[in-house]
Amino acid sequence: MGWKGTVRAISAAAKRAERESHRRQKMALVEEAIEEAAHAVDSWEQYIEGLISVHGELAKPMNWKNIVNSPKPSEPKIQNDVENKTSEALSAYKPSWLHIFKGGTENLRKNLRII
Question: What values do phi and psi take at 61, rounded to 5?
Answer without folding.
Answer: -65, 145
